[in-house]
Design goal:
Length: about 150
Amino acid sequence: MRLRNVPGAREAMVESEYVVNEPKEYKGRWNELFGNSNPIRIEVGMGKGRFIMQLAAENPDVNYVGIEKYSSVLIRALEKQEEAQLPNIIFIRMDAEEITDVFGEGEVDRIYLNFSCLLYTSDAADEEDSVDLGGRRIIKKKKRVRAGGRGTE
């Protein structure tokens, strides 16, 4: 998908009731934000929101958090949500590498990684660079340095 600058997209994120602008403040307290104790499921790299919006519409007893790095893409999901006004979905504009700073251990019931490749799962993850988000240890992707000094993902 080619990313294009969408004028006013970042401003719309800040002003929207459907976007959490300081997600780290809710670590361990996401159910308070939703106002219920329903399970929380997240989609990393949600793009324009088609998948997660459909899930939220079909499962009103589950809370959804869509994570997208690019405001020029997230704005399309936000437009859909402003029309649908689903009470069980919110969005975060952030780099998924910060996910361990945003969600506490055991706080997330399920993670959808449909098109993203920023996170790995492993049963043998290093405790310092990982967190248990619903039974699976999620670890941050680390750069490896080649002999020539250039980083690789």
